[in-house]
Write a structure and sequence with these properties.
159 residues; mainly alpha; Globin-like; 7 helices; globular; transport; Hemoglobin; Globin-like_sf; Globin/Proto; iron
């Protein structure tokens, strides 16, 4: 049996309006958080909207982040030399999921599994890219996340 017309994660969550509500409320919580507040102390007022547009593109919505801000390389640059910790990463993911619950976002197992998968993957990359010596691949494509993206570890084939 083939399922027809499966919506993107972007459509399932409710589009940019929902993502803007999420990031706006989330970053209010972040500012008040003892662990994360200092990390985002110099965050501009437009930061939540930028993150909403980024998440929208990743989750299958319009390519607005790539068109307006420079895609994934631009996002990576925002994390360079920030020296993020695993504790901060875990708190960031947890607080975002708590905010999603607070706002009554979709909580079906399939959507939340996909969302958690992306947040774990993306936040772990952010930590890696925030450490000394990290660099930006200017040709990196924008991540695209769907209903089942985990493919297994990257293994270099033996010659």
């Amino acid at each position: 049996m083939t399922i027809q017309n499966v919506p993107s994660l972007y459509d399932w969550v409710g589009g940019i309006e929902t993502l803007n509500r999420l990031t706006t409320r989330f970053y209010l919580h972040v500012k008040a958080d003892a662990l994360l507040g200092p990390v985002f102390a110099h965050m501009g007022a437009d930061h939540p909207a930028h993150v909403a547009v980024f998440l929208g593109e990743v989750l299958g919505g319009p390519a607005a982040y790539s068109e307006q801000y420079g895609g994934h390389p631009h996002m990576v640059k925002q994390h360079l030399n920030r020296h993020l910790t695993q504790e901060q990463r875990r708190r960031w993911v947890g607080l975002l999921l708590e905010t999603a619950d607070e706002l009554g976002m979709p909580d079906d197992p399939e959507f939340r599994s996909a969302l958690v998968g992306y947040l774990e993957w993306g936040s772990r990359l952010a930590v890696i890219n925030s450490q000394a010596g990290a660099s930006v691949d200017e040709n990196a494509s924008m991540p695209k996340w769907g209903w089942g993206e985990v493919k297994g570890p990257y293994i270099i084939p033996k010659e």
